[in-house]
Design a protein that fits this description.
The protein contains five helices and 18 strands. The chain has 285 residues and is an alpha+beta fold. It folds into two domains: 137 residues, Rossmann fold (3-Layer(aba) Sandwich); 134 residues, Sandwich (Tumour Suppressor Smad4).
Length: 285
């Protein structure tokens, strides 16, 4: 019997809907396992029971907002388990299905009437004093930013070992096309379709106005470091985990070989979601 995983935002509406979905799936001869948030910064689950191995799942349904979706993807790790986001949160782009369309989408999933869209992720390695400090995979973005009352960041950036520039700014965002509609967009970055093979670099409030967002090929390897006079800086990964960094840290960012496999059910189009979320003409709320 195929097993479907559920990760549900801890709010009454999402929990009640998940209860109905669990019963509906059981009636359609699908096993269901509930994986309860929150997920900690290191990706471990804090469940009442034992969490399954993600690779054992037929697919994963995530009922919540973009934050819940990002936590779920971190839990999936390197696996290729298909995942479907169902919106129970504020404005977001990752949870594409509304609660009203949930059971129609669930029917399509169990009938295998869906496509898979691979969403690029970034592999991030933090090296301190020549030793690997951490290795992470992110779906949205990597952010170097100053903490409260810190001075401007001076971020040296190399592309494929070639010096690009030193950004003097409040910080720097490196994002995937999926993450282009998140923090990068708020900082003035472009919207990039998820299937466009690129990496976006967006400075946050740059001191030099000619420092503009830049899109580079997804094959590029980015190396970042801080100048010695940059202090009180924080590295944030998908808004889910963070760590303090200084001039002794080297941050390497490149395309991960493990994309997220997002379920695309018939009738849901990216541009309709984009128009609705950004309140463009023709958008449906």
């Amino acid at each position: 019997m195929p097993t479907i995983g559920l990760i549900v935002k801890p709010v009454p509406e999402a929990q009640q809907t998940a209860d109905r979905l669990e019963k509906w799936l059981a009636d359609h001869h699908m096993a269901v396992v509930r994986i309860n948030p929150p997920l900690s910064d290191n990706g471990d689950t804090e469940n009442r029971g034992t969490a399954p191995d993600p690779s054992e799942l037929f697919c994963l349904f995530v009922l919540g907002g973009d934050g819940t979706f990002l936590s779920a993807v971190r839990w999936l790790g390197d696996t290729s388990v298909p995942v479907l986001g169902v919106k129970f949160g504020q404005v977001g782009f990752l949870a594409e299905i509304t609660a009203e369309d949930l059971f129609t989408a669930a029917e399509a999933v169990i009938q295998k009437d869906f496509a898979i869209q691979q969403r690029m992720r970034l592999a991030v390695t933090i090296i301190k004093d020549g030793r690997e400090r951490s290795r992470e995979i992110v779906l949205n973005d990597v952010v170097v930013a100053k903490s409260t009352l810190a001075r401007l960041a001076h971020v040296e950036v190399y592309i494929d070992n070639h010096y690009l520039t030193t950004f003097r700014a409040d910080g720097l965002i490196v994002s995937t096309p999926t993450g282009s509609t998140a923090y990068s967009l708020a900082a003035g970055g472009p919207v990039i379709h998820p299937e466009v093979p690129g990496i976006i670099m967006t400075p946050i409030c740059p001191f030099t106005l000619t420092n503009r967002p830049l899109v580079i090929p997804d094959r590029a390897i980015i190396k970042m470091s801080l100048e010695r006079d940059s202090s009180n800086m924080i590295l944030t990964l998908d808004g889910q985990a963070g760590m303090e960094i200084n001039h002794r840290d080297r941050i390497l960012i490149q395309k991960s070989p493990h994309p997220v496999h997002m379920i695309k059910v018939p009738g849901i189009e990216y541009f309709d979601i984009l128009k609705a979320k950004l309140s463009w003409s023709g958008g449906r709320v």
